[in-house]
UniProtKB/TrEMBL annotation:
UniProt-recorded Gene Ontology molecular function terms: ABC-type transporter activity; ATP binding; ATP hydrolysis activity; ATPase-coupled lipid transmembrane transporter activity
Keyword Cell inner membrane: no
Chief location bin: membrane
Listed transmembrane segments: 12-33, 64-84, 143-163, 169-190, 254-275
Location relative to the cell: Cell membrane
Protein name as catalogued: ABC-type multidrug transport system
PROSITE patterns with a match to the protein in the record: ABC_TM1F (PS50929), ABC_TRANSPORTER_1 (PS00211), ABC_TRANSPORTER_2 (PS50893)
UniProt domain ABC transmembrane type-1: residue ranges: 19-315
SMART domains linked: AAA
Amino acid sequence: MKTLPKSRLNTFAWKIVPFSIVGGIIDIGIVALSSRLAGSLVGKELNDLIPGLNVFNNSIEEQAIILVCLFVILSWLGSFAKIFRLMFIESLTAQIWRDISNGILFKLIGQPYNYFLTTKSSSISSQILANMQNIADLIIRPILLMITSIILICSVSLALSLVLGLRAIILLLFLAISFFILSSFVVPYLRISSLQNVRLNAKFSSLLNQILLSIRDIHLTQSRDYFESKFVLIGKSAQRFQWRAKLLPDVPRIVIEPLAISFIFLVALMPYIYGSDYQNLASNLIPFVATFIVSLVKLTPPLQDLFRSITTVRGGLPEIDAALLYLELNDSNRGFIPSTSLSPDGIFPRREISLVKINYKYPGSNNYALKAISINLPVGSRIALMGPTGSGKSTISNILLAHLQPTSGQMRLDGEPLDDNEISSWQRCCSEVSQDFTLIDSSVLENIAFGCRPDEVDLDDVLEAISAAQLTDLIEEMPYGLNTLIGENGLNLSGGQRQRLALARAFYRNTKFLILDEATSALDQKTETEIINSLKIIGRRCTTVVIAHRLNTLSKCDFIYEIKDGEVISSGTYQDLCNPEHPLGISVKV
Ligand SMILES: Nc1ncnc2c1ncn2[C@@H]1O[C@H](COP(=O)(O)OP(=O)(O)OP(=O)(O)O)[C@@H](O)[C@H]1O
Ligand SMILES: [Mg+2]
C-alpha cells in the first residue's frame, strides 16, 4: 500500500470523508425530525431544543406539515450525498485497482526469464487477474465502505441517544455484540471458501485455456468427454465455494434484523410492563418505536455495509497475501536496467563471443542440462548447433541471449566476462527466432516492428526485413497489406508464413547477433535457401547461430558443433560432417 500515489489519500480525505460527514449530519436531522413528527402525531407538546427556531410553536397540524416538508428535503439531500459518496468510493477503488495491477505488471515484466520457468504461465495470468479483482472487491471497497459506514452509524447513534437516551444506547450495543458473535462463527467458513475460490478459479481458467489450445487434438483423439467431465468436475466444486463466499457475509445481517425488531419492542415496552404505567403507553411508545424504526431504516444500509465489509475483509485477507507476493517480488538486476553504461555498439565484441565451461541446471531439476559447454563464435561467422532432441541446444541459445544465468562458467565477449549490469546492453545486440515464438494478436506491421511506437517505425527497414524473410508476395496479397490483422498467435497464417513473419521481426531489428532456433524448419528448401542467402545482405556482418537438423541449412554454416546430453561431443566444418572418418561425420552418417 506504500506504493499508492498520494492523490489517492487526498481523494479519500477530501472527497469521501466530507461526503460521509455531510450524510451523517443529514441523518441526524432526519432522526430528530422523525422523533418530533411521531411525537406531534400523538399530540405531544414539543419544546425547541434549538434556540430561536420557533417553527414548532404552531398548532400540531402546522408542525406536522413543516416537519414533513423538512423531512422530504433532508431525504433528497441525503440521497445526493449518498450518490456522491458512493461515486467517490467506486472511483477510488477503481484507481487503486489500477495502481495495484500496474504495480504487479511492472514487477512481473522485470523478472528474469527463469522466474517464468518456475511459474506455470497458463495459471499465472488468470491468478493475477483474479487477485487484482479480489483486492478491489474483498479489500479496498469494503475498507472504504467500512470507514464511511462508521461515520454514518456514529451520527445516527448519536442522534438516537440524544433523542431516546440510555435505552437506545444499550439496544445498539446489544445489536453490535450479537453481530460480532455471529460473524465470528461465519468467518472461518468464509475464509476457506474464498481461498478455495481463488484456487479453483485458477484451475478453471487454466483448463479452459488448455482446452482451447488443444482443440485439434481433442477432435482427433475424440477426447471431448474426458475434457468435458474434467471441466464439469472443477465447476461443481467451484460452485459450492462460490455461493458460500457470496452468501456468508450476509448471514449475520439477515439474522440481526429480526433480532433487532424483537428487542426494540422489548426495550420500549419494558418500563410499562414493570411500572404498569399504561396511561402514557401510547404517547410514549409510539414516538420511541417510530424514532427507533426510522433510525434503523437509516442505520440499516451503513450497518449492512459495515457488517458485510468486516466479514468480507476478514475472509479476503488470504487474497491480499497472494497479491502482495507479486508486489514484493525483487526488482531484478538482470536485463531491463536503465542502460546508462554501454550502447549496443559499445559492448559488441570485435573478435569473438565465447562460452567457457558453462554448466546449467534448470530450477527444480536434478540434472544438468548443460555440462562444461565451451564454444567459440568468431564475430561475423555463422555457427550451427546440431544434436538430438533434448540435448541442450535451446538452453545454449538462452545462455547466449543472457535469458538464463549459467550455474557455473562464463560467457565472454572478447575474453571479458559478461557482467550482470551489461546484460541489457548485450540483449539490445541480440535478436532471435525461438522454437516457440509467439506472434501478437495485431497487424503484420506491429508484429514486425515489435514493441515500437508507430512514430518510431522505419518503414524502409520493415520492407527490407519483409523481403529478406521472403514475405513480400504474401503481404501484397493481403487485403490490408501491412495493416492486415493476423489473429491470435498468427491463427490466420500458415505455419511457414508464421515462421517467416517471426524471421522478419528478427531481421527488422538489424542486430549484430542473431539466433535462429529451428527457425526455418517449417519452410521448403528453396525458401529456406533464399532466406539464408538474404541473411548476408540484411545482416551485413551479423554473427549468426543456427540451430538446425537439415543438412541444407548446415551446409551454409562456417562451423558446426554437435551437442548431445548437454555436452559438445564433436565439432567441425560442413566438409568434416560429410567425411565419414571425422567424428562429426561418424555420428551423423551423411
Ligand atoms: N524449463 C525447464 N525446466 C526443466 N528442464 C528443462 C526446461 N527446459 C528444458 N529442460 C531440459 O533441458 C534439456 C535440454 O533442453 P533443450 O530445450 O535445450 O533441448 P533442445 O536441444 O533444444 O531440444 P529440441 O531439439 O527438442 O528443441 C532437456 O532434457 C529438457 O528436458
Ligand atoms: Mg530446442
